[in-house]
Structures are given as C-alpha cells and as structure tokens.
Design goal:
- This protein is an alpha/beta fold.
- The protein is built from seven helices and six strands; from the N terminus they run αβββαβαβαβααα.
- A hairpin with a 2-residue loop joins β2 and β3.
Length: 175
C-alpha cells in the first residue's frame, strides 16, 4: 500500500511528464520490480530461474550489483542462467555500507550504453539500485532532486546513507 502511494506521488510530482514512466510490474521470481522506462527495469533480489522470464519480458542485459559475499548472490549461477536465456550479464559489485564513487562512474557508463538496453538492474532489495538510479536521473536526465528522490524511493531506496552518497555524488559531478 505504501509503495503504491509512493509511486503515485512520483507520478504526481512528475506532473505526468514524458520522463515519468515509473510503474510497478511483475515478473515471476523477481522482487520489487519497477519498470522505470522502456529501457530500464530496477529490482531487488532475482531468482536465477527468473532470468528466462526477464529475457521474455524483452530485456537484453542484466546488471547485478550484488557482492559475491552476500547470502544468496549466486553469481556464477546467475551468469550461467542469464547467458542461457540469451542475456548479456554484467556484474558490478556495489557495497551499500561503503559506496564507492567509481562504481557510480561505471554504472553511468553501463546504463548509457545502448547495447545494454533494455537493461534489467538488480541488487538484494533494490536499495542500491535506487541510489544509483537517483544519480542517473539527476545527472543524465536532469531531473530535480525532489522528483529523482521520490522515484528512487519508489524503486526501493530506503537507506539515508545511500541517499546521501547519491546526492553527494551528484553535487560533485554536476557539469
């Protein structure tokens, strides 16, 4: 219920603009799936069995932000399942407790690469995905902070520390 209200708020804040296409959706085996636009889906934990469904949903690449040490990360299995489904697999470990600006730099390059689109981005709960997507919205799409934060929270951003990391990153990279 709260998540639905947050998404509704994102759409209201966006004023129905063409840049606000965030929508909750469902893919079997995927947690916290939000389709942010035609080129990107942001999610939490993703079962390796769901990767075939992700390919059927039209995605071309999977970006996994989970660390190898996370319980349930299953990196080798995820890569094998993604490739078996015809998906490009990209692993970019992002430590939520100690976020690294270099990961954000690389994330922006991966997202900008049209060869990776549509791109399915996941971590464990969508918190890290939300923080990096917040950076993308503000730096690339030039969204105002309030709108970008609202969308990031709808995606799954819940950590004040990750939100601060994202906003600090934006502040030091505005050009």
């Amino acid at each position: 219920m709260v998540r639905t209200l947050v998404v509704a708020c994102v759409l209201v804040v966006a004023g129905g603009s063409s840049t606000a296409r965030t929508q909750q959706a469902t893919i079997e085996g995927v947690r916290n799936y939000t389709k942010v636009d035609a080129t990107v889906g942001c999610v939490g934990a993703t079962d390796t069995k769901a990767l075939a469904n992700i390919a059927k949903a039209g995605y071309k690449a999977v970006l996994n932000l989970r660390e190898a040490t996370e319980a349930g990360a299953l990196l080798d299995e995820s890569k094998a399942a993604a490739e078996a489904a015809g998906l490009k697999y990209i692993h970019l470990p992002f430590k939520g407790s100690a976020p690294d600006p270099k990961v954000a730099d690389e994330f922006l390059k991966i997202v900008a690469n049209t060869g990776n689109q549509p791109l399915f981005i996941h971590c464990g709960g969508a918190n890290r995905v939300g923080s990096l997507w917040l950076i993308t919205r503000m730096l690339v799409d030039k969204w105002p902070q309030e709108q970008a934060v609202a969308e990031a929270k709808a995606i799954g951003l819940s950590s004040d520390a990750l939100q601060k990391f994202a906003l600090d990153y934006v502040a030091t990279h505005k050009g």
